[in-house]
């Protein structure tokens, strides 16, 4: 087992979380590119609020002046004014919803893209210690869970806050005494809403972790490999029970999340609904105790405003609760956006016009955990001239694959350097490295797409003739053309419609299409039977011709003709030379060859 796999159960996101004010400021920065559109929304919100509070004043004029005095002309104008305010409010509401939803979805797009881009830049070590389902859950569940908040919260806050302020000002203009009565309990309501929000935030964090756990189970157990393993091991029922247990936990968290503070918010709603009765009672007491009489029009208009105040106030409190709950989701997303990049492109990185293919390892040390872990590679010095071939052999865990992954910078050295044409790979641009180094590994990955699309992944602008030529060189063209749909055949999830040897040859064809001057072969034939191995080896020989080739060997029969062979043991080179030289030395390599020979002769 490679050292990085030991970290799988220990990795967790950074423990330090930003404070809430920092989170809020960071969330606000997400909307900065769209401040022009948000300004338009603000104007529409202000106009809508001003128009809506005009209606009660029109109503007061109808009740106190137009009807008592029999002024039908004034009545008609006031009635039309009320209709016009309703129409204007509706139009403004539709426009602000359109703009705010568009802005919200653009912010969602920016978040998804930023997280995906960040993950694309993470080192291979991150993915070897992180469950795939966890990564998918951050992008799908966490960002998806923020959709309502991002698309509507900003507008809801501005709209409701403006409506509340406008309503309070209008209420004070109508009667300051009734206004005081209406607002007495508002501070208590705000305190209740903030407390409910904090409680729901804690539950939301637990819920998202549980959803990530479920997503990981689904990803692992319902993949083709997971189904094969579950069926062949007779664990289908056990996996279902495990999933059911996780789902039960999610049910409990969902119920708790939805019911947390529900009674307290219901009390707020009841009190606000009962407020008109309190206002009528207060108005009656004021008049009965010798105070100035409140006209019927003023009272009705005030109650209308108060009821208009009820909806945005409750909505504002609910939005506050939702914002606090969503902070938990934003924190999970920010954790990924704040992940440190182990491998970055240096400022002023170089591009190599024409790559010859000279590769050298100079005093290379590497450790997966430099601070505390044992080194995987120590003091490795080896050079491969352009067009030459190097084979790396050794026991499992000796560091063979790790050594090869240092060339394309899937990992960075802890000490020393790896060079291509004399330039440290850390000083090269990522595009130069991708064009210079091709990798064919034992675990061939194919997308769930057509054969042609899988090959074009290496060269998107490749012509059909170039694809066919690469497939011929990889000795897979005849098989592809023999399929009912030819190059349009879907390869299936992870290429399961093709055999291991066929997938390897497709991977080789893909690399031929890429045409890299440096080639890494990481045990590319170790999982194949002897007959298939020969076909794949012929394709590899075609691929390797004229290229600098570094082969991580499992079967030593495939590397007899290598220009140089090095033997690794615990990360150190203990032998080097040609096949014949190492056999004559009678050391570790000779022992490995004897073992391979005995296994081959004893095989049926």
Automatic annotation (TrEMBL):
Keywords: ATP-binding, Cell inner membrane, Cell membrane, Membrane, Nucleotide-binding, Transmembrane, Transmembrane helix, Transport. It comes from the Bacteria. It is a multi-pass membrane protein. SUPFAM superfamilies: ABC transporter transmembrane region (SSF90123), P-loop containing nucleoside triphosphate hydrolases (SSF52540). The keyword Cell membrane applies. It holds the Pfam family ABC_tran. Gene3D superfamilies: ABC transporter type 1, transmembrane domain, P-loop containing nucleotide triphosphate hydrolases. The keyword Transport applies. Residues 39-325 form the ABC transmembrane type-1 domain. Residues 359-595 form the ABC transporter domain. One of its GO terms (molecular function) is ATP hydrolysis activity. It is found in: Cell inner membrane. One of its GO terms (cellular component) is plasma membrane. The chain crosses the membrane at residues 38-62, 74-99, 148-170, 176-193, 265-283. InterPro entries: AAA+_ATPase (IPR003593), ABC1_TM_dom (IPR011527), ABC1_TM_sf (IPR036640), ABC_transporter-like_ATP-bd (IPR003439), ABC_transporter-like_CS (IPR017871), P-loop_NTPase (IPR027417), Type_1_exporter (IPR039421). PROSITE patterns: ABC_TM1F (PS50929), ABC_TRANSPORTER_1 (PS00211), ABC_TRANSPORTER_2 (PS50893). Belongs to the ABC transporter superfamily. Siderophore-Fe(3+) uptake transporter (SIUT) (TC 3.A.1.21) family. This is ATP-binding cassette, subfamily B. It comes from Actinacidiphila cocklensis.
